[in-house]
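Here is one chain, start to finish.
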Amino acid sequence: MTAIQHRARRAVAEAIALGWEGPPFDMEVLASLRRLKLVVRSLGDSKREGLWMGATIILRPGLHKHRRPYVIAHEIVHSLLGKDQATTTKSEAGLLERVCQAGAAELLLPFHVMAGHCNGVPVCTSLIDSVEAAFGVSFEAAGRRCLELCSEPALFIVAVGAEHAARWGVRTIIGPAQLRISDLQVVRAYPSPSWTEGTAGLVGLPVPRTSVIQRSFSRATISRKLGATFRGEESWHIGCSQRQLTVEAAPRPAAGRPSAAIAVMQHSGGQATLFAPRPKPQSQ
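Its structure:
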């Protein structure tokens, strides 16, 4: 466990002792318990959504209601880190933001509550649905947190229509003329701690047109009915080699229409769970 995770878990324990309840856990209440004042005001031309300044957290006007809790959690973590957060390089700034992301996950989806909610539960799209609904977070945050706490090798990916990949900061890696409007492209890939194959080259990769990920998204787009889950055995180029994986996929909506597809990928025949690994069969 990293230092910031330890600090975040201690902050959660202190807040719960004072009556903080969840899930979902109210980040505005947590800020109040930590004597941090929330102020909505322009941050100028900055792309920042929030800024911690001493006893105040400044929030950019117009934050989406589902984005606001994360931004508050992120800035609370900055307050936990204290004043010594100066960065001189882009690499250092990126590392600081990743540290704050990890800490924010501990506040939004506290470890001990997740343990009670998910202990021994198989990692699948329905579990991510359950965590998303119970904790009031995005599907991306729910999936990422589930994989962080997963006991066995697994991979969580998010794919969107190739024409929208740039909105996620991902370039298309093949010519637009070779892509169809209906094609998907991987824009996020989150491995569990025990996933050893890496994710090199996966972000930006077009989803194979025969994949259950593509099928789940296409079916929902045609019927406009969400909730369908597709599962199949597929070969994917992960790291430096082809891997045979069990893939489960489901579409995710925006304003009632599917805008992304999520998938949990595991080694063929495997079944990853949260926290508790599956008991090994006893020798005869």
